[in-house]
Design a protein that fits this description.
The protein is mainly α. The chain folds into 2 domains: 78 residues, no CATH class; 43 residues. The protein has 5 helices and 2 strands. Strands 1-2 form a two-stranded antiparallel sheet. The longest helix is centred in the first third of the chain and has 23 residues. The protein is flat, with a radius of gyration of 17 Å. The termini are far apart. 12% of the residues are buried.
């Protein structure tokens, strides 16, 4: 769970984690905060789903997800952090979303959707590699 305690954030600063792509690396402060926010929101959504089993969870509707009305203040703050991070680092955010979606689609055996997501993921990874490439002198 995300906490306002600065020692918790300092503890997260160098913890190794694994990415959706299976790589393990040490997180810096910003990445650790984003991961903590994602985890907190995922736990909140899973709790909401567990407490509301009668609602169809796969149904796509317009507007905010019904669980957003039940969020705690720290979960609202976590959503704001993820929103800002997504605007500041769009390729990184889309890469994580695509990788997570690809794993779920493969698990559900949705091959057509997984193929499209894989194409998107490859495009984002290529864009990310182009940004991080050293400039030849």
């Amino acid at each position: 769970m995300l906490s306002a305690n600065t020692s918790d954030v300092a503890l997260l600063r160098c913890q190794p984690t694994s990415s959706p792509l299976g790589r393990t690396y040490a997180l810096n402060h910003d990445q650790a905060l984003v991961e903590a926010c994602r985890t907190d929101l995922d736990q909140a959504l899973n709790d909401w789903r567990r407490l509301n089993p009668d609602i169809v969870h796969g149904l796509r509707t317009m507007g905010p997800h019904p669980s957003e009305a039940c969020r705690l203040p720290r979960e609202h703050a976590a959503a704001v952090v993820l929103n800002v991070h997504g605007h500041l680092h769009p390729i990184e955010s889309r890469t994580v979303v695509c990788a997570t979606r690809l794993v779920a689609q493969r698990k559900a055996r949705w091959t057509a959707q997984a193929a499209g997501t894989l194409a998107d993921l490859r495009r984002y990874l290529a864009a990310r590699a182009a940004i991080h490439m050293p400039i030849a002198a």
